[in-house]
């Protein structure tokens, strides 16, 4: 009987902790209009670094650190990846970034999920949407988004970690303008 009671108490404490984390992450997302950050992205073992700005809903601009002048831009409808030698344009709604850049979508999913704590400093949620599987990571102390992992359009495994996060800065006026193809 004591063992059963201990299990019940443990489950109640765990449920309350998860509910509290969900509430704090949701509140943080609701209060975030934009974020600037540094990132490290690993795509099938190829690592890239850079800086990004996200403006909700669905806008992102990333400048990669390497000397190929790679940028990634979404204006909320299209996603462009441009380098010195290539130009790719996709409908945003066909990419996993469509989900990541939509804080209202993330909030609606987190409301119904139980986060998993990793190493007592990350909270992760696994989101299944049609054929897409997306894991998102939040800092357990600040409740900030700190990364995600997904499979991209070309079936590449991507994991992105973000750091040096600055919230609610006003982005430059034309930052999310889709660049033209050379």
Compact overview of the structure:
Helix content is 23%, strand content 43%. The protein has 182 residues and is α+β, with helices and mostly antiparallel strands. It has an 11-stranded antiparallel β-sheet.
Going by CATH, what is the homologous superfamily?
Answer: Lipoprotein localisation LolA/LolB/LppX
- The tally of structural domains comes to 1
Instruction: Label the structural class.
Output: alpha+beta
Q: Briefly, what CATH class?
A: Mainly Beta
Strand content: 35-45%
Number of strands: 11
Instruction: Identify the strand order in the major beta sheet.
Output: 6-5-4-3-2-1-11-10-9-8-7
CATH fold call: outer membrane lipoprotein receptor (LolB), chain A
State the distance separating the first and last CA atoms. 73 Å
On the 0 to 100 scale, the average pLDDT is 88
Low-confidence stretches: 2-17
Rg for CA atoms: 18 Å
The 3D shape can be described as globular
Number of continuous helical runs: 3
What's the CATH architecture? Clam
Q: What order do the helices and strands follow?
A: HEEEEEEHHEEEEE
Main sheet attributes: strand count, strand direction, barrel closure: 11 strands, antiparallel
Estimate the helix proportion, in percent: 10-25%
Describe this structure in words.
The protein is α+β, with helices and mostly antiparallel strands and 182 residues long. The chain has one domain: outer membrane lipoprotein receptor (LolB), chain A (Clam), CATH 2.50.20.10. 23% of the residues lie in helices and 43% in strands. The chain has three helices and eleven strands; from the N terminus they run αββββββααβββββ. The protein has helices at residues 2-30, 97-100, 103-110, and strands at residues 34-43, 46-55, 59-64, 71-75, 78-82, 87-91, 116-118, 122-129, 132-139, 145-151, 157-167. The protein has an eleven-stranded antiparallel sheet with strand order 6-5-4-3-2-1-11-10-9-8-7. A hairpin with a 3-residue loop joins β2 and β3. α1 (2-30) runs antiparallel to α3. The N and C termini lie far apart (73 Å). 19% of the residues are buried.
